[in-house]
Amino acid sequence: TYQPFDWEEYLRETNSVPAPQTCFKQSPNPQINEFKVGMKLEALDPRNVTSTCIATVISILGPRLRLRLDGSDNKNDFWRLVDSSEIHPIGHCEKSGGMLQPPLGFRMNASSWPMFLLKTLNGAEMAPSKIFQKEPTGPKANLFQVGQKLEAVDKKNPQLICCATVGAVKNDQIHVTFDGWRGAFDYWCKYDSRDIFPVGWCAKSGHPMQPPGQKNNSGANRFRFRPAFTAPPPTPPVSSTAPEIVQSPEADTSAPPPPPIIIHFRKNCLGGPLVDTSQ
Ligand code: MLZ
Fold it and tell me: pLDDT of 15-61, one tens digit each?
């Protein structure tokens, strides 16, 4: 059985606080997902946002839809919330004076697009407009603070929503860092990104949540069990004697320094063919 992540315990362990709901462009109440696998809708092409394409629901996780553009391949699926402003019922584009476009990387000749579109929509199950939800209004300013916890989409594995921390705040952006993972997954996004959620969002909306990673070296696991105050690292001992002797990092600092090595030069001795005697 699926064990929901225990945020309360984790916040205690890490001595941290969640970013308040008011920071996010997310509905405070969970969105009901009435979409079904196979339904068709209109979606902006994520790789070319000026064009509206036909998309099919491939799978469903909580209030999120895994979408694939018709005529595209299966390597460019993307996820949208049921209250995304980037999805609409079929007919919306035409009503607003636009035309449905082939997706970037349309696998057929562009000239076959009109016929492809006709065949794609013929007899298709179209998502009814009543199941599309209105996008919430976001906050007017960046209210996030460094150290606050949140749940965030892993853009490299976009089906995953993971335990994260605000690592930095700059103007209208925040740096999303993933707890227990090396920086490779971290990213900057706008404060009103639809990919970030308040603590508890997954549990409320029936979406799985990824607990912190287990990586333990240097920067990783860096948000687990972080004490409230971290003492600065100890400074190396300062030697009062023999300032000329520089010790290697491995040297045992408790041992007395070795005696100096004395090298004698016999000035009038020819050193052999490899020794330059001109200096
Ligand atoms: N299987 C992947 C998942 C990484 C998920 C990280 N999320 C922040 C991996 O181990 O690389």
Answer: 999 999 999 999 999 899 999 999 999 999 999 999 999 999 999 99
Instruction: Give the single-character DSSP code of 34.
Output: -
Please give the distance, rounded to the nearest whole angstrom, from the Cα atom of residue 187 to the centre of ligand 1: 14
Ligand 1 proximal residues by C-beta, below 6 Å: 154, 157, 160, 162, 178, 181, 185, 210
Q: What is the C-alpha to C-alpha distance for residues 163 and 177, in angstroms, rounded to an integer? A: 9
Residue nearest to atom 7 of ligand 1 (CA): 154
Cα of 20 vs centre of ligand 1, distance in Å, is 26
Q: Rounded mean pLDDT of the chain?
A: 87
CA–centroid distance, residue 162 to ligand 1 (Å): 10
List pLDDT tens digits, range 179-225.
999 999 999 999 999 999 999 999 999 999 999 998 754 444 454 44
Q: What is the pLDDT of residues 139-161, one digit of tens each?
A: 999 999 999 999 999 999 999 99
40-45/48-61 β-pairing = antiparallel
CB 137 within 8 A of CB 25: yes
The span from the CA of 209 to the CA of 62, in Å, is 11
Name the residue at shortest CA distance from atom 1 of ligand 1.
157
